[in-house]
């Protein structure tokens, strides 16, 4: 395509309710840098600069089916041009017209939720989003979010001095104060005024940034710039800039490609567009595979899931990515597309070696196809990590089994953290096929697993620990699925030393 056709180099967005235009923004300038250095809004803080601590949490609003939706994001890894057509809210926006504090802020004051105050703006914005979302969606003005909802909303916010009890108390009590209404209709109208139909494209020597509006524009751009960086949520790409100082020119941002955000059921498969956020993708998957609920909740934090994409997770192909083992064990396929057409392959075949994928230079990930459940299939997945929330796995395991009269007809087990790619334990699988699903069969597979993996040692776990954990998780799966006295997730007591993953052990109590 001719990238100069209908070209515009100006982005427009709302900043705390006011329309802002920025011409020729640096494609990799972070929203955090823009707020602090350009707009002198100092409430948003930089802590880790990698989307982990939450000190930079802001709220973004965008139109979805002509209705505004709000979500928390990490400003430190969000690139400024991705704000085009959206609304950005910072902690400064919470000041009331009479100068008083918002109920979220006042509750934090009342319940001593802040000490040094560095992390406080991030907590405030996460809670402000909860406050508004609950107000918008709740039909009962007296209802409040429970502790689980609040804790989930705060998984991306870390505090090093106050502790979390007073913050959680403030979150519960903020609804007891006089209500401050959020004006969704004005936001909807203001967002509608800044939407554009043409492609966002600016192309000069140092800064090439494209935001195609449809899949045709995307594939033509990828053909024209085969070495371009594909940007989705930026949850990994943002670190390439902040931590590795990479030059990412040119960048193709897929966040405005409508087709890539679609999630739908086709025949016997759930198709998840590569641009669908992790939050939306997980919500859809959970309807069919509730066994993944805990994994989705523990996958990074809510701000990361709000902007990160399942397609990006798959395309990145990290050996410690949590999505891939579960998807592979369920027989998921990946759809790749270029300007000439599309092709589909099993997801496991996409990964050739460490960070090497079977993706042509002009191809992009279009979608992931996940088979719908069948009654005879039993599925489980498990995550082991140092921290329970918002941490990278030391070992991730996913199992899918079909039994007939207690004989194993099919068995897929896939691990993350055990090899250079997300990898099936094919030798162990074959040892189980056609056998009775009993302790002898499983313990034999546990021994054979040494033929499947030679894990490495790193800061998350030793090689011996990873192997022991992997075999233990297979045994746990057996205990939960055996025909005689099966144990549920709730009744199986698993002891995991979360402070030191190098000392993980799994023990079953009577």
List the defining traits of the structure above:
single chain, 510 residues, alpha+beta, Ubiquitin-like (UB roll), DNA polymerase, domain 1, Uridine Diphospho-n-acetylenolpyruvylglucosamine Reductase, domain 3, 5-stranded mixed beta sheet, 5-stranded antiparallel beta sheet, 20 strands, globular, disordered N terminus
What would you note in describing this structure?
The chain is α+β, with helices and mostly antiparallel strands and 510 residues long. The protein has 4 domains: 150 residues, Beta-grasp domain (Ubiquitin-like (UB roll)); 83 residues, DNA polymerase, domain 1 (Orthogonal Bundle), CATH 1.10.150.120; 114 residues, Uridine Diphospho-n-acetylenolpyruvylglucosamine Reductase, domain 3, CATH 3.30.465; 119 residues, Enolase-like, domain 1, CATH 3.30.390. It has 16 helices and 20 strands. Strand 18 and strand 19 form a beta hairpin. Helix 2 packs across helix 5, helix 14 runs antiparallel to helix 15 and helix 15 runs antiparallel to helix 16. It is globular.
Map the helices and strands:
Elements: E1 10-15, E2 18-23, H1 31-38, E3 57-64, E4 67-74, E5 87-89, H2 103-110, H3 120-137, H4 147-153, H5 165-173, H6 184-193, E6 200-203, E7 208-211, H7 215-224, E8 229-231, H8 237-242, E9 251-253, E10 263-266, E11 269-273, H9 278-288, H10 293-298, H11 302-307, H12 310-316, H13 323-329, E12 333-338, E13 341-346, E14 351-353, E15 356-357, E16 364-371, E17 377-384, E18 395-404, E19 407-416, E20 423-424, H14 426-432, H15 439-448, H16 463-481
Parallel strand pairs: 1-5, 7-9, 8-9
Antiparallel strand pairs: 1-2, 3-4, 3-5, 6-7, 10-11, 11-16, 12-13, 12-16, 14-15, 17-18, 18-19, 19-20
Helix pairs in contact: 2-5, 14-15, 15-16
